[in-house]
Amino acid sequence: xxxxxxxxxxxxxxxxLSRLCDKHNIPYDMKRFMDGxxxxxxxxxxxxxxxxxxxxxxxxxxxxxxxxxxxxxxxSKGNQSAEEILSQLRKVQKYEDTKKRGMHRIQKYFASxxxxxxxxxxxxxxxxxxxxxxxxxxxxxQIKDLGAVGIPNLPLFFPSWCNNITIKKDGYTQKxxxxxxxxKENIECIESHGIFLTVxxxxxxxxxxxxxxxxxxxxxxxxxxxxxxxxxxxxxxKLYLPANERAERLCRDFTLQKEACKVLYRDGKIVSVLxxxxxxxxxxxxxxxxxxxxxxxxxxYLFDKAVLSNDLTIVEYxxxxxxxxxxxxxxxxxxSILSLKFGVRFATSxxxxxxxYASIFCDINNARVIIDSGINMEHKGDISPxxxxxxxxxxxxxxxxxxxxxxxxxxxTITDFAETLKMIVNTSNFLPKLxxxxxxxxxxxxxxxxxxLIYT
Length: 456
Hints:
This protein is of the alpha+beta class and 456 residues long. It folds into 4 domains: 3-100; 137-275, no CATH class; 283-411; 412-456, no CATH class. Helices cover 37% and strands 30% of the residues. The protein is built from 13 helices and 20 strands. It has helices spanning 7-23, 82-100, 122-135, 184-192, 212-221, 227-230, 243-255, 283-297, 322-331, 385-391, 395-410, 417-427, 433-454; strands at 3-6, 29-33, 36-43, 46-58, 61-71, 74-75, 116-119, 137-142, 147-150, 165-169, 172-176, 195-201, 204-209, 260-266, 269-275, 302-309, 313-318, 340-348, 355-364, 367-378. Strands 1, 2, 3, 4, 5 and 6 form a 6-stranded antiparallel beta sheet that branches. It has a 6-stranded antiparallel beta sheet with strand order 7-16-17-18-19-20, covered by helices on one side. A 3-stranded antiparallel beta sheet has the order 8-14-15. The N and C termini lie far apart (83 Å).
């Protein structure tokens, strides 16, 4: 993949990469290439990494650079720095070293897909984020290059189905690496929906097990999201399509797409297949931006707790704005408010077209309530932690609005509970309207039955 960039800037990146290789004891060879340079990193008889650059003229412009590089057999896409190239390279080297030792490459933090961990230890949070940064793998792949393998589980499962696998794409046959049916992640995938996603990986076509929640995102990328493809078991009078037939249909669907997608491999499974517009934002970088802003706006803030899972990261901080909190609490004493604290809840996810949130919460008598949707930024387009930083400039204004909202709610006189709740829902945005409508209807019906009994 070739890109054109200013000569001096990109040549400095190659020099920087050579110095980083020296620092990390990575052997490399640097030699003249046309009228530029080539840096290659050998791996036995093949090249593990190659970076080349040379100047040329285009449209009368001089001193431009044409640079191309590949790592582990894949051409890079995008203008990447020396540090980013090195980061990819070290992942490939780690994979190659593991493969030589005959070890499985899966690195897991959670024992199961649905496990959730709550911690009040900041060091554990840092350890988790470091683990994610080191072991998560993002693939930017053309959808047409994806494929699917279906391993049926009912009525019987035969291990031979996991060997000598081939898929058909555009009239030709692709050989797929064998699936180790003794691996826990593969067993779970077979017993669930039976679909494995095939991705070009280190010069081979590898079948990765798919997490349950990621299956629907695969159907979205294939533009084939429908009940027939979603159904994995017989339901009432409708039969399900076997896994191998769904996989064949997906292979055909993929060939009709002309866009790229972003695939996340985490804890031994594909956990999301997202559109090309999805912006990958590293959680640790977003938290650094938030913590710097909290230090600036609320210097007494403290980390409170984190809720961690494969799908979602939530981190909460107490602001310790004692003057504001005590002032509000004094006004609310008549409402039996004994304790009140304000904080910020950070939340983000890598498994869907989600947003990054920085919301204000309030602990009222040790019950935590989100007061306002606060600041949010969608994982979409050319956004970065810098954009999140700009949005956080108003975090103190969001807190002020939340305080006003609590004061306003505390002054409401309740005569009709259902009508009061309806009024709160219509004027505030922290109660979900769909569920509150159901609650209001239930309360109204309950009072309609109860009141005649009381007054008779």
